Amino acid sequence: MKKYCVFSMLLLTMVTHFTMAQSVSKHLERGNAYFMVRYYAKAIPEYEKYIRSNKADAGCELRLAECYRKVGMYDKAESIYADVIATQAVGDSLLINYAEVLKKQGKYSEARIQYEKLSDKFVRKKICIGSCDSFSVNSNLSLYGVENLSKVNSIHSDVAPVRYKSGIVFSSNREETLIKKKSSNTALPLYNLLLATGKDSLYPDQVSNFSTRINSIHHECCASFTGDYKKIFFTRSIDKPYSNDPGSKNALKMYSAFWENNNWTNWQTFVFNDTTHSYGHPAVEENEELFFFVSDMEGGYGGTDIYVCFNIDHKWTKPINLGPHVNSPYNDMYPFYHSDGTLYFSSNRPEGMGGYDIYSATENEDGEYEMIVNIGAPINSPQDDVSVYWNKEKNIGYFSSNREGGKGEEDIYIIKKNK
Fold this sequence. Notes:
Elements: H1 2-36, H2 40-53, H3 58-71, H4 74-87, H5 92-104, H6 108-116, H7 125-136, E1 144-148, E2 158-164, E3 167-172, E4 192-197, E5 206-209, E6 219-225, E7 231-237, H8 246-249, E8 252-260, E9 263-269, E10 279-284, E11 290-295, E12 305-312, E13 315-316, E14 320-321, E15 332-337, E16 343-347, E17 357-363, E18 369-374, E19 385-390, E20 396-401, E21 411-417
Antiparallel strand pairs: 1-21, 2-3, 3-4, 4-5, 6-7, 7-8, 8-9, 10-11, 11-12, 12-13, 12-14, 15-16, 16-17, 17-18, 19-20, 20-21
Helix pairs in contact: 1-2, 2-3, 3-4, 4-5, 5-6, 6-7
């Protein structure tokens, strides 16, 4: 009887440990599954539960740090990166990620230390180090001030503002005033194009659906208009789950429409749209002579590159990559072409102030964009700053940012030139 009791206790202990191990393993499996499809917020609690029982799993900890970085929990990401880097040799990519989360918190001197550890093979090493030195000096001599458009912004994501007549057209995934639609991928509302108007055109306070003919059961984002507002270009993102199939994950396409008989009609798809690459973020020159856009097509320099087409005999030329000064090994997007010839764009190249920064580019004598300048604070910040728009005089502009003190995930800000 005594032997039976001992045996039963041992068996119960083994079953308990086995059950607990299975439970822990499931947390890792679920975390990895969420991570693979970029559901970082859902992956976090699974990884946290797994790590509590498997503290020595460095690979899982780094994936958790990546999740923290992606969702903006920079202090937690910093803690993991610091522990890993203190105990083992790491590559350039991890040092860059660590420096990014430090800069996101305004810790430029600490980020500089990490950039100094980069191998000499990393060609942007000196630029990154120098950028930390320049951003550490907080200049109050800026020509511009920025202000949150609180009456336009929501608790959700509000991005890509452009002027449209006496109002602003922008993209948002808020649920109010929208066609009720959600992504099968994330269960979050999809983006629509919205119109903000009001008595004060600089500070609109009424938001409505821009067009029921354009907004659909898919994402719509990043509108661009010709100077007479009679033609619109925009991005539509087909709602497909992420996978290893290029045809599934690359779902951005560009479209145009004409304003006729008080409605948007005569739809056209961008001539170079295809089923294997993404095409989005259109920026048309006001006379429709130049057309800039973003794509991940083969032959680029990074994740997404900026291209230009020329209008010759009412046909777009084949896309031309803007080259290695505008485009980088990272993501370069949200182009905006000003009538004075300046191209503005956003990039997450590591020499920025934080995540995505806004840059300006001007042409040299050969017509190539090579004078690339970070436009600096207060427009850029330690957070993500994207999709700038300027009026003709450049005394008024708009952009989007997820900086601290905002109302939602990303907010729209107005830029005003100081008197």
